[in-house]
Write a structure and sequence with these properties.
The protein is built from 3 helices and 8 strands. By secondary structure, the chain is of the alpha+beta class. It has 2 domains: about 90 residues; about 70 residues, no CATH class. The strands form 3 sheets. A 4-stranded antiparallel beta sheet has the order 3-4-5-6, with no helix packed on it. A two-stranded parallel ribbon has the order 1-2. A hairpin with a 3-residue loop joins strand 5 and strand 6. The radius of gyration is 22 Å and the shape is elongated.
C-alpha cells in the first residue's frame, strides 16, 4: 500500500511491475482508480498514460483485473466514470449503486458494458453476505414489511425510481387475471 498523497508514479508503477512478475497472479483487484485520480489528476495525460500502462501490464501477464472506481455521487450519477473518461479502455463496466426505496437503501447491480457481447441493462437487486460474498437476488427477499422488486420500478440508475404501473410489470401484460375452479375450468 502506498498512500495516494505520497505516490511517485514511475516508482509506483515499477513496484507494481515487480510484484506482478514475482507473484504471477491470475487475478488482481485495483482499488481504487479514484485514489490514483486524486493524486495524478483526472483531466491530464498523466493519469490516462498510467492507466494505459497498467492495462498493458495486466494484459501482457494475462491477468484478469478488476479496476474499482468510486463515484463520489452517492445517489446520483452524471457519468459512469466521472472525470476519468476511461470507458473505452476497459472491456466491462459493472455499476453497483445504492437505490433508495421508501426509507431503506438497497444495493443495485447493472452490467453497463460488456465488450463484444450484447448487454441487457437491467438493474438487479443484490446483497453482500458476510463470509459468502455477493449474490444477485432473483427473488423477493422476505422482510418485515413487503416491498416491490426492482422490476416494479423505472429509473433505478438515475436514482429517481418511480413505481411501474401494475399492468406493465414483467409477467403481467395487462390481461385480466383468470380465476380457475378446482377442475381447471375458467369461472
Amino acid at each position: 500500500y502506498d498512500p495516494p498523497q505520497e505516490i511517485e508514479i514511475d516508482q509506483h508503477f515499477h513496484k507494481l511491475e515487480q510484484i506482478i512478475e514475482e507473484f504471477q497472479p491470475r487475478r488482481v483487484v485495483l482499488d481504487s482508480l479514484s485514489t490514483y485520480g486524486s493524486n495524478l489528476g483526472t483531466q491530464g495525460r498523466l493519469f490516462r498514460d498510467f492507466f494505459h500502462a497498467m492495462i498493458a501490464l495486466m494484459k501482457e501477464h494475462q491477468t484478469a483485473t478488476v479496476y474499482n472506481h468510486e463515484n463520489p455521487e452517492m445517489l446520483g450519477m452524471s457519468s459512469m466514470m466521472g472525470g476519468f473518461a476511461m470507458s473505452s479502455l476497459v472491456d466491462n463496466i459493472i455499476l453497483m449503486n445504492w437505490v433508495e426505496l421508501g426509507d431503506t437503501f438497497r444495493l443495485g447491480l447493472t452490467v453497463a458494458k460488456m465488450r463484444a457481447n450484447p448487454v441487457i441493462r437491467t438493474t438487479h437487486e443484490c446483497e453482500v453476505v458476510n463470509g459468502a460474498g455477493m449474490r444477485v437476488l432473483p427473488r423477493e427477499i422476505h422482510v418485515r414489511r413487503p416491498h416491490t422488486p426492482f422490476a416494479g420500478y423505472y429509473g433505478l440508475i438515475g436514482r429517481a425510481p418511480e413505481r411501474r404501473p401494475a399492468a406493465l410489470t414483467p409477467g403481467n401484460r395487462g390481461e385480466p387475471e383468470l380465476d380457475t375452479a378446482s377442475n381447471g375450468e375458467q369461472t
